[in-house]
Amino acid sequence: MRSKRLTTIKAYLFLLPFLFFFAFMVVCPIAIGFNLSLKAQRGARMWYVGFNNYSKILTDPQFWESFKIPLYLLVIQVPLMIFFAIFVALLLEKVEGRRGAPVFRLVYYIPSTIPAIVAAIVWGYMFSDSMSPFLPLLTLFGFSGKLLTRDIVPLVLLIIILWQFTGYTAILIYSSLLSIPKEYSEQAQIDGAGFWQIAFRIKVPIMKDTLITLFIFNAIGAIQVFNEPWMLGGLVVLPTNYTPAMYIYNSAFAQGRFTYAAAMGLILAAMTFVISFYFLRTATKQMFAQEY
Q1: pTM
Q2: How far apart are the first and last CA of the chain?
Q3: DSSP class per residue in 72-90
Q4: pLDDT tens sequence across 132-160
Q5: Residues 6+ apart with CB under 8 A from 193
Q6: Which residues pair with 78 in a beta bridge?
Q7: What CATH number belongs to 67-240?
Q8: Sign of CA dihedral 100, 101, 102, 103
Q9: 31 three-class SS
Q10: For 15-47, what is each residue's pLDDT tens digit?
Q11: From CA 250, how far away is CA 264, in angstroms rounded?
Q12: DSSP code of 225?
């Protein structure tokens, strides 16, 4: 009994640094934000109003309109990126052990290491009406309009996010592929299965848990998207509520409604949690159903 208690104490001591920083960086800001969301504000003066901010948000059309882009990314970008990442990961596995294989992995991974500010400069240059490298080619075809308009911003967001995170997702899937026993592939080859048959009928189903986790992480990113539309806002005028994160930011720092923004941030976090919990719970039920 004493040994078990000592082991428990050691475990908590080992977790203590993480728990401290988690409480300091996550729990405390949430508590402060919740306290702030229960107040109204006029200038520097604040007063308690309870859940009045939350009731206003539930009937705020601008807040709910801001989910159009996240929904678009969730339905189109996330599945598309998972599909491309699987394809790239399978190709990386196919060239594993050959000369140049590490270079291919590095090339696909590099975009995810580029800081957001650098990516903003690069893509701003690509779509600039005066400096874009595509201008000479477009001029040959008689194009004289603006490269970036509000109507094509969703497509541009799709391109940017796919460029930046597909390689990172592919590397994670590739790592999962390496953990699959080679006996499965060898047996399938003996039975006459080809490379792509083995990939999509054996390997991809085995990686189901990994793919679900990646889907959840990318879905969270889609709901909280901010950097990409914010950097495009310097090239084309976008509404202040183009995404939920942009609406929260503009409400706080452009309009000075910090208490209202805090309430919106907590609602967005709660919605993200519910969506993630739903997918995890559904996946867990399916996994146990298959086992039994």
Answers
A1: 0.83
A2: 36
A3: HIIIIIHHHHHHHHHHHHH
A4: 888 778 777 777 677 788 888 898 889 88
A5: 201, 202
A6: none
A7: 1.10.3720.10
A8: positive
A9: helix
A10: 888 888 888 888 898 899 999 999 988 877 888
A11: 12
A12: -
